């Protein structure tokens, strides 16, 4: 894929706030047309700061960003009509009704779709006469999404879109986002719900302290981490009584009291071998839990490793300063 195939292209992107705090540190990634790309990270990782640079709300302190082939900050007039933005907080006038808010927003939007259509997309058509201040938190998020969709955007930026929604509302939003993506809309999503990213994303990047710690398809990121089997050792048995762990495809293990946790990249083979042993031996593996690697486990491992790497770098810096003195 060439650079021309990407509708979002960031290269060496940096954002430094007054006081010298560097929120985004030499970030590079690209998003293809029609792709749903999720940007994940721990609190303070720089997700929202990055999104604001892509949306043209602030100029980068270094590096470059192109959206639909243009600089989103200096060429905002060329980019803004073609993108939809859902911020973490819309900030609509509280005294206006839902319909009045949508009409006001449509008046500022090029080629806006009918207001009723936008409200129907997010299931707010029956709440159009309700004042914004009377909406629930989840309904306000749905209104935010409706306003982002008014201009039939080529690119849709979603910053924590399902915060405040109940389980049903979250699933309905996911379905709408899938339909938009399948219809050719490019979606860049930030979320702290890892299940959401796992359900929706074609590709994702995990940020830590302004940098990308991992990037790729969900299955690629998850595949780098082992599946797990946990159970309670039967009374009278020891770890050495199990089949040879290497033969089961087990790459590591942990013990906490009588509970054993096995890690493997060959989950089916390991589980089959363990259950066959239990059946032949005539023992019950209480608390048996067999699970594939998940994005949550990958995320936690990546975040933990990134923090340790940062700490080691900091310790090395302190040691170097001490040696210099």
From TrEMBL:
Metal-binding is among the record's keywords: no
GO MF term list: ATP binding
Keyword vocabulary terms for this entry: Antibiotic resistance, ATP-binding, Nucleotide-binding, Transport
Domain ABC transporter: 8-234
SMART domains: AAA
Predominant localisation class: membrane
Subcellular location: Cell membrane
Entry annotated with the keyword Heme: no
Entry superkingdom: Bacteria
InterPro entries attached to this UniProt entry: AAA+_ATPase, ABC_transporter-like_ATP-bd, ABC_transporter-like_CS, ABC_transporter_ATP-binding, P-loop_NTPase
Topology versus the membrane: Peripheral membrane protein
PANTHER family in the cross-refs: ABC TRANSPORTER ATP-BINDING PROTEIN (PTHR42711)
Protein name per the record: ABC transporter ATP-binding protein
Organism of provenance: Streptomyces enissocaesilis
């Amino acid at each position: 894929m060439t650079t021309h195939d990407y509708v979002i292209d960031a290269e060496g992107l940096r954002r430094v706030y007054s006081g010298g705090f560097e929120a985004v540190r030499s970030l590079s990634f690209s998003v293809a047309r029609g792709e749903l790309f999720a940007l994940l990270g721990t609190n303070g990782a720089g997700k929202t700061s990055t999104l604001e640079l892509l949306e043209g709300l602030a100029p980068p302190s270094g590096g470059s960003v192109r959206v639909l082939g243009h600089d989103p900050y200096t060429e905002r007039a060329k980019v803004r009509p073609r993108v939809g933005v859902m911020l973490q907080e819309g900030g609509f006038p509280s005294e206006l009704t839902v319909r009045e808010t949508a009409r006001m927003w449509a008046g500022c939007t090029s080629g806006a779709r009918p207001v009723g259509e936008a409200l129907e997309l997010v299931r707010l058509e029956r709440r159009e006469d309700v004042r914004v201040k009377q909406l629930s938190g989840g309904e306000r998020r749905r209104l935010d999404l409706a306003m982002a969709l008014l201009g039939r955007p080529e690119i849709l930026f979603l910053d924590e879109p399902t915060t405040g929604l109940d389980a049903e509302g979250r699933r309905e939003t996911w379905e709408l986002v899938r339909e938009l993506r399948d219809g050719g809309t490019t979606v860049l999503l930030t979320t702290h719900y890892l299940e959401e990213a796992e359900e929706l994303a074609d590709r994702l990047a995990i940020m830590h302290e302004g940098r990308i710690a991992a990037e790729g398809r969900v299955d690629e990121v998850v595949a780098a981490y082992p599946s797990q089997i946990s159970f309670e050792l039967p009374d009278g048995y020891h770890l050495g009584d199990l089949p040879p762990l290497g033969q089961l495809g087990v790459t590591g293990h942990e013990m906490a009291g009588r509970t054993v946790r096995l890690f493997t990249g060959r989950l089916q083979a390991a589980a089959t071998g363990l259950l066959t042993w239990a059946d032949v031996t005539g023992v019950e593996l209480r608390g048996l839990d067999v699970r594939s690697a998940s994005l949550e486990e990958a995320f936690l491992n990546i975040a933990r490793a990134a923090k340790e790497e940062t700490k080691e770098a900091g310790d090395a810096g302190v040691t170097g300063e001490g040696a210099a003195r």
